[in-house]
Structure formats: structure tokens, C-alpha cells
Amino acid sequence: MAVKRPNPLLWLWYAVGGKLPDRYREWVLHDATAPTWLVRHVIRRLVFMLPILAALYVLLAVILDFSPTIVLLGLALGVYAGVYYSLIFSTHSVDSRVTRHGFPDEYASQVRHALKEAEKQRYNATWRDGQTPS
Prior knowledge:
Strand content: under 5%
Protein name: DUF5313 domain-containing protein
Number of domains: 1
Radius of gyration: 20 Å
Number of helices: 6
Shape: elongated
Organism: Kibdelosporangium banguiense
Order of helices and strands: HHHHHH
Helix content: over 70%
InterPro entries: DUF5313 (IPR035197)
Keywords: Membrane, Transmembrane, Transmembrane helix
Pfam families: DUF5313 (PF17240)
């Protein structure tokens, strides 16, 4: 059975921290455990920051008439800092998101670890003749 994805409006709600209906539980788990989970996390944070950045640009560059170059450099620095701190707390943030959707604490991290271990064993069985590298 295919995992049911949320529509774009629900995804935006999810991206800014909202809880999806229970029918999307499996998709939330997939979102938190797919190989691209970290990229997805960063995209959600950027979507969260976009309206704030746009409002700051309008305020500083358009209304207060500051130099657009300086404003864009300042906003870029803000994006850098926001993504940096988002990455620092990404594991906790994603685990909390999964817990909010009804899974046990740290379940996403456990699933990612199990998937990584299974892939490592599959690789060793295929390329290392069952021997783990020393």
C-alpha cells in the first residue's frame, strides 16, 4: 500500500510545525526516516523562514530605503545562522515531530539507525563476503 501524501496546503501547515491528521502518520514517519530526511528538514526550515525574510526585506529595503545589497547580505547571514542552528537540532526536531504524530520517543532515530545497519549488513554480505571490515 502506498503512503498517503498530504496536499500542498497541509504540507505547508506541516512545514511550519503543525500536526497532520492521523491518516498521514505513515508519511510523517517516511518523511523523518527517508535517506533524504535531512534535506527535507532544511527545506521545511527555509519555508518557515521565507515569509519572515520577505517581510524584513520589504521593511528594510523598500520602506526604510536601506541599500538592497546590505539588506540581502544581512538576510543571507540570517539564513545561514538559521540553517546552521536548525541542523544542530535536526535530530531532536524530527524526533519530536514524529512523536507528535503518535510514535514513541526517538522512534525516527531508531528507525534510521536500523535502516543504516541493515544497509551496512547488505553491503558487507555483497562486497565483503560476509566479513565486516576491521
